Amino acid sequence: MNSINLADAKAHLSELVALAEAGEDVCIMRRGKPVARLTSAGAPKKPVSLAELRAVTEAMVPQAEPAGDFMRRLRDESRY
């Protein structure tokens, strides 16, 4: 893990972001103590297969009332 003080981090932020994007962690220090860590945001999510989504949703039982009405009813019946 790379360590850098806060003043240098401000001056070289784009370089530090490039390092984090490449998978390296960067520790930002203030007066010799770690205060922040710059890491990669992670891998992008894979696209959803429409065929798999249909297979899952077709197996679901349809509900008697819309979700919004159901939640309103739960909220209103539970008051006081």
Q: How many domains, in number, for the residues?
A: 1
- Order of strands side by side in the largest beta sheet? 1-2-3
Mean pLDDT: 90
Q: N-to-C terminal Cα separation, in Å? A: 54 Å
| Low-confidence blocks of residues | none
Which class of secondary structure composition applies to the elements? Answer: alpha+beta
Taken in chain order, the helices and strands follow as: EHHEEHH
Please bin the fraction of helical residues. Answer: 40-55%
Quick one: biggest sheet? 3 strands, mixed
Number of helices: 4
Number of strands: 3
Global geometry: elongated
Instruction: Write down the Rg.
Output: 24 Å
What percent strand? 15-25%
List keywords for this structure.
single chain; 80 residues; alpha+beta; 3-stranded mixed beta sheet; 4 helices; 3 strands; 44% helix; elongated; Antitoxin_Phd/YefM; phD-YefM_TA_antitoxins; Antitoxin; YefM-like_sf
Descriptive report:
- There is one protein chain.
- The protein has 80 residues and is α+β, with helices and mostly antiparallel strands.
- It has one domain (2-78).
- 44% of the residues lie in helices and 19% in strands.
- The chain contains 4 helices and 3 strands.
- Strands 1-2-3 form a 3-stranded mixed β-sheet.
- A hairpin with a 2-residue loop joins strand 2 and strand 3.
- The radius of gyration is 24 Å and the shape is elongated.
- The mean pLDDT is 90.
